[in-house]
Each structure stands twice: as structure tokens, then as C-alpha cells.
Amino acid sequence: MVSIPSDYDERVYAGWVGKCIGVRFGAPLEGWTYDDIRSNLGTVDTYLNEAPGKLFKPDDDTALPMILIRALQDAGASPDLTAQQVADAWLNYLGDQQGTLWWGGYGVSTEHTAYLNLASGIPAPRSGSITQNGAALAEQIGGQIFSDIWGLVAPGDPALAADLAARASSVSHDGNGIYGGRFIAALVSAAFAEHDPLTLIEIGLSLVPAESEFARVTRAMVDFYSAHPGDWHACYAYLKANFGYDRYPGEVHIIPNAGVVAMALAYGEGDFTRTIQIANMAGWDTDCNVGNVGAIMGVAVGLDGIEWRWREPMNDLLVAASIIGTRNLLTIPQCADLFCTLGRALAGGPAAPARPRYHFHYPGSTSNFHAEGERGRVIELRQSMLADPNGTLQASVRKLNKKGELRIYTDTYLRPGMLNGNYYGATFTPLIHPGQTVTAEVFVPANAPDNLHAGLFVYDDNYKETHQSPGELLTPGAWHTLRYTVPELAGACLSRVGVVVRNLGENWETGAFHLRALDWSGDPAYAVDFARERAEGSCISQWTKLRGYWRLEDGAYHGSGIGLCETYTGDIIWRDYTVTAVLIPLIGDHHYVNVRVQGAQRSYACGLGPDGTLAIYRKQGQDYERVAEAAFAWHHGARYTLRVTAQESIITVEAHGDEGRTVLAFTDPAPYLSGQIGLSTWHGSHTRCEAFNVAPAVGEMEA
After folding, report:
1. Domain range holding 539?
2. Whether the Cβ atoms of residue 681 and residue 687 lie closer than 8 Å to each other
3. Phi, psi of 507 (to 5 degrees)
4. pLDDT score of 703 more than 50
5. C-alpha span between 184 and 198 (Å, rounded)
6. Is there a single domain that holds both residue 145 and residue 237?
7. 97 and 150 share a domain?
8. Quick one: which of 110, 423, 429, 671 has the fewest CB in 10 Å?
9. pLDDT tens-digit profile of 545-586?
10. What gap in Å lies between CA 434 and CA 694, rounded to an integer?
11. Mean pLDDT score across all residues of the chain
């Protein structure tokens, strides 16, 4: 039984902050060599500004780990997590050869090869094995770069962390590729108790075969450091000459980059900034290497050891990429909360108290909040302990005039054009929807004016409109809980949620406003207006896809393609609801509404099936099983209204058309109890969707 450290949460947060810093710092130089960097940029000691005013793009180094960790969650945080369970997470949360990863081709990209192996029925770990794919492909860098998370969930247990990493890495890698995963996970785990980089390296080496090429390059870097401790440039020259890219096959082999990681740790000598700078200046796979050493050193030195200049530009935002759109817009605290929950479960200890979506417990955390003012301004947003020892977001106010307003908010939807790049194909679903109830805990100090009012608001980016609650008078020195139920809206895209503060008295010259928590819950109630949507990335706004050609045509949403073509929206945590869609089947035999979508491998599909039927299918794995059907003589080109209700274990579908009305129900003995909503069209079919809305469940319908 592993003992959870008393500062576990903060150290996990520091480790993931370090990872995200490293990825962001290294990303602009990915693929550059040491000579390229020195010749064109000189010394790089801070972030390079790739696209002013843009948000940092998704990166596979963080996007895939946020999928892999769901394998552990789906498996009930079992220390016996298997390679096949991780493989199932690949198939469940990855789009079919789009988004998240580099899809460079079978036999070229290690991850692309592994995915196609899995999709064709080759199980893990054979999917990533040398026997299946050859050593050149299996020993690329991916086994190493995605493995920090296993150390974060196994604090002080390097052996467990290494084993979890090995099983996860084996889905796509083998040999030295797996050893790199074991090494990185072990160092992150050990860093909760040990802070000396050389000692950490020795712990990692104890968990990989001593005769391996991975151990050889790592040992060579440590030995060179011992002989020449003051000159990392000389060490790099030695690394390039003896373990350079020219000596290993494939696109991005693990060995040269493993050498960079060991070199940076040794020559960084326990300093976070120096370590990530050395790793970046060395070139090659910079975002990967800098991300790895950032995670290790983040845990080792804690937040106090990470200069604020690295943290401030990130504002705690992490953009990911998966087919679950609400998991693609994250905050670093939300990631840390998930890691800590799973780490405690792995350790068999008590669970941490539940936290709201947005809180400010972690020192310095800002959870991607922003501020803007009208007739007044916020001059700083920062985490503070002044109003609550557990932390708040403090908005420092300067001269809020009479009838002036301040808005403190976070993003709930992103347009791909807001990113500085989108090579990994992030698409988004709004985090909040009409019909849901927002709550926030707010406070103004005792010396604040007594004519301040506060309310909650959401911003609709489709109509460029703000919806907000009536203001509530704030009593200085007292906490207030604000509530607002977003009205049912048609065609909305809610891209912001936050608090509005309005001054109805004399000027508020200086002061502070505190936000302790913000969250929402409840049933969605809204209608989609496809005329308001737009093409975004590989899909359309507010939707993601598994596969298929999904597009807007003549004010409607069309889907067609080969295989099981599916598109999703909504939140994976939604439970009971009713979805109504107006469909026109244009070609083929399969036209469905999806409910309780938990990814590509778990969902229900309800609608117009082959041979003139109304059908309900249940998906577990890659194939659907038809679980209920009734006669319904639908035909191509006609318009049909499908109303699908998911309530507890009962799935009900009602179809209306010129042929009349048919109702079909299925009670699942092992139900999926939550999930997204969506549309699907299979096996060469073409479906037109003209209307789509969601409402609270209305109960089982009578046939």
C-alpha cells in the first residue's frame, strides 16, 4: 500500500504544469537540430511567440495522455490495468485516423500503425510488438513521451508507475520504446520523495534492462556529466556523435531523445528553468523531451521551483483532442484533480472531497479565467488566500465607475481559429448548454461599497448575445452563492460563462472581488439551428466525429461515408434526456440518432434500419448488436421525426412519418447510464438531418 504524500495534490499539479510548460516551450522548435537553433535563434530562454493573440494548440504529448488516463478511470483505477484495456481506450476515444495523433501512415507512424492493427482485430500488446511491426517502428519515441501520467498516479512507487507505463506503451511500442516509458514514469513517481536528478536517473535505470540501448545511452550521459560537469554543449556533441539520429532508423527514434532527457536532467542540476532550457536547445524532438523533463522536475521542485514567467502565459489552459468534445477544453487544475482522484483510488486510500469544475485550491491557479470591464477595469487576476485559506480567484479592481460593469469569465467553447495551430485536429463541444443551472460563490471585502450587485452570465457566440441573471446585492464581508438557470435557446453556442459585477453607487476606486467556485448542473434544453453552424476542422461547429463525411448543405447536416459513420455533441456525463431529430434518409439502409454515447465503443443507435424497420442497436466494442426492432415501412426521400428517450435503463424511440407512428423500447440489463448524443449513418448510407433538439427526459412512451 502506497502512502499518499501530504502535499500530493499540489505536487501533481506542479508536475502537470511542468509537462505543459515543456510542451509549449519546445513545440515551435520540434524537428530543429542543435545547429539550427543556434544558427537561427541563438539562445532560446523563453517561449517563442508563434502567433500573437492565439491560444496554444493541442499537442499529442498532452492529448494522448489525457486519453490514456481514461483507460485507468474506465478500469476502476485498478493497478492490474492491462494493455488491452488501454487499447480499448485508444479505440473508444480516438477518431478514426483523424485528430489527437500524427497519422503519418501505416509502417511510418508508430501510433498510426498500432491503431490500424487494433482496429483490424490485432490485440494488444501484439499491436505494438517488434514481432508484428519490426524494431525500427516499435522503438520510436512515443513510448516515452506519453508516460509521465503513470508517475503522477503512483506517487512514491516507481515500480508500479513503470509497470503501468509499460502496459500502456506496449499498445504501440516494444523494446527500447517500452523501456523509455518505464524510465519516465519511474522518475516522475520517485520525484515525490527524491529531488536529486542523478539519484532519480539511477532509480529509473534500476527498472529497465541494464544491457538495453536505452540504459546504455542514459548511462553514457551520466558518465559524461561526471567527467565534464560544466559543459552540456560538449555532452551534446558526444551524444550526437555516438547516439545521433543518423545511427537509428525511423522518423523519431527514442534513443537520441532519451539521451537529451538524461543530459538535461544531469546538467540542469535540479533547476527547473535550466533543465528545460538545455533540453530545448539540444533540438530533435523538443516538445517531447522538454515535456518529459518538465514533468519530472515539476514534481521534484514543486510550484515554488517553477518561475511564474513560465506559468502566467498558459493561464491554466490545456487544449486536448479526442472525439469527446467536452474533454478537449480543459484546465490544468481539472487534469490534476483527475490524476489525484485516480492516484488515491490506486493507493486504496480515502477519496478526496469532490471539487467544483472551477476552483482555486492550487497555488497560483487561475483556471483559464479572464476579465474585462466597462467603465472600470480589473488590473490583475490571481489566486489569493485572503478571503478563503483554500484559495479564491481575486480580481483586483481599479475605479469601477457608477453603472460600470466587470466580467470575470472562462471559455466554454473554442473556435479552431482561436488556436495558434491545429495540427492534431481539436474539435469542440460547448461545456455548458441552455437549460442548465450555473452556481458561483463570490465575496467582496468588508470595505467594499454597499451598492455592488453580482449576477451570472453566459455568452452566445452564434448570436453574439449575452444572457444573464438579475443582479443580487452583495453584502460586504459576506459570501454569496449565485444561481442562474440558462433559458432554453435555439441555435445558441455558449462560449463563455462567468460573473458580472455592477456598481450602482459611487465610484469604487480600488478593491477586490473574489470568486471561490463556479460550476453547473442539470438537464440541457435547446435546439440546434444548422443554419447558424459552420464548418470547423474535420466536422462542423459544436460537433465532433468518429468517421465519415459530415458537412452542412442547404441549411441541414449531412453525413455519409464508409463503415460506421458517427458524429457527436453534448456532454459524456449527461444521463436522462430526450433527443428529437428530423431526418431524411437519402441513400442506404441505416439512419440513426445516437444516445448515451461514451465514445466510439459504447452507445445506442436508434432509428431507421434495414428491411423497413425501426431499430435499436447497442454497441459494445467496434460492432453494434440489434437489440429491438419493429416494422416501419420508411422510404428514401421522405421526412421522419425520431424522438429518442434515454431514461435509467430504458431506451425508447418513436418514429413519425407519412406511414404513421411506431414506438419501440428496449430495457438494457447492463445499461450505459450516461453519455453524449449524436447521429450516425452506416455502410455507405447518406442521411440529412434538418432539425435536432434535446430536452429533459419525458419518460417511457407507450406503443
Report:
1. 526-696
2. yes
3. -55, 135
4. no
5. 13
6. yes
7. yes
8. 423
9. 999 999 999 999 999 999 999 999 999 999 999 999 999 999
10. 10
11. 96
Same domain, 404 and 322: no
Peptide bond into 249 cis (omega under 30): no
Same domain, 316 and 381: no
The predicted-structure confidence for 155-177, as pLDDT tens digits, reads as follows 999 999 999 999 999 999 999 99
4 domain-assigned: no
Residues whose CB falls within 8 Å of the CB of residue 210, separated by 6 or more in sequence, listed in order: none
Question: How confident is the model at residue 702, as a pLDDT?
Answer: 45
Task: Tally the domains of the chain.
Answer: 3
Closest CA to 69 of 416, 261, 444, 324: 324
Which residues, 6+ apart, have CB-to-CB distance to 691 below 8 Å? 527, 528, 580, 581, 582
Q: Which of 115, 1, 7, 13 is nearest to 60 (CA)?
A: 115
Per-residue pLDDT, 701: 47
> Cα separation of 345 and 343, whole Å?
5
> Which pTM does this prediction carry?
0.97
The rounded distance, in Å, linking the Cα atoms of 320 and 65 is 10
Percent with pLDDT over 70 in the chain = 99
Residue 342 lies in a domain: no
- Over residues 451-464, the mean pLDDT reads 97
Largest CA distance in the chain: 85
Structure confidence by residue, pLDDT tens digits, 105-114: 999 999 999 9
Count of CB atoms situated within 10 Å of the CB of 543: 23
- Grid coordinates belonging to 281: 536547445
User: Strands (DSSP E) along 590-685, which ranges?
Assistant: 591-597, 602-609, 613-620, 624-631, 640-647, 650-657, 660-667, 676-682
Per-residue buried b or exposed e for 403-425, using 16+ beta carbons within 10 Å of the residue's own CB: ebbbbbbbbbbbebeebbbbebb
Q: How far apart are CA 458 and CA 453, in angstroms?
A: 17
Which of 681, 613, 618, 693 shows the shortest CA–CA distance to 649? 618
Q: Are residues 403 and 545 in the same domain?
A: no
Rounded Cα distance between 350 and 344, Å, is 7
Q: pLDDT value at position 537?
A: 86
Residue 349 clears pLDDT 90, i.e. is over it: no
Please report the pLDDT score of residue 1 as a whole number: 55
For 431, residues 6+ apart whose C-beta sits below 8 A from its C-beta are 326, 329, 412, 413, 494, 497, 571
CA distance linking residue 89 with residue 72, whole number of Å = 9
Are the CB atoms for 410 and 367 separated by under 8 Å?
yes
List the alpha helices (DSSP H) in 244-331.
254-268, 272-281, 286-301, 308-311
